[in-house]
């Protein structure tokens, strides 16, 4: 059985996917994170969603994040408090991801 917190993460991921595709945005879905770039200049719809305690592919996530500021689109990070460790915190600080939401 899936824990309630995992249901929340799965639900948010599905809503991110649906909306991003509806506006012809770019969705990067990896085992450890989802990143939505909707091309809409608001952090409401441009979202980084960590899905794992550990960052598994640092190159993919770094290159994905680096493409966002080039267009100066703000984006938010939604993270499960169980995943809020030094690896994710360092990444968020490195890229100045100030908008963090803990689920």
Mean pLDDT: 87
- Count all strands and give the number: 5
Strand arrangement, largest sheet?
1-2-3-4-5
Q: Which stretches are poorly predicted, pLDDT < 50 over at least 5 residues?
A: none
For the terminal residues, how far apart are their CA atoms?
20 Å
Helix proportion of residues, in percent?
Answer: 25-40%
Write the H/E string, N to C.
HEEEHEHE
Rg from Cα: 13 Å
Derived from helix and strand composition plus strand pairing, the structural class reads alpha/beta
Beta content? 15-25%
Q: Could you say which overall geometry the principal axes of the C-alpha atoms support?
A: globular
Our count of helices gives: 3
Largest sheet features: 5 strands, mixed
In short:
The protein is of the alpha/beta class and 103 residues long. Helix content is 40%, strand content 19%.
Q: Secondary structure elements and their pairing?
A:
Elements (H helix, E strand, L loop, with lengths): L3 H19 L3 E4 L3 E5 L9 E4 L7 H13 L5 E4 L6 H9 L5 E3 L1
Question: What can you tell me about this protein's structure?
Answer:
This protein has 103 residues and is α/β, with parallel strands linked by helices. Helix content is 40%, strand content 19%. It has three helices and five strands, in the order H-E-E-E-H-E-H-E. It has a five-stranded mixed beta sheet, with helices on both faces. Strand 1 and strand 2 form a beta hairpin. The longest helix has 19 residues. It is globular and about 35 Å long.
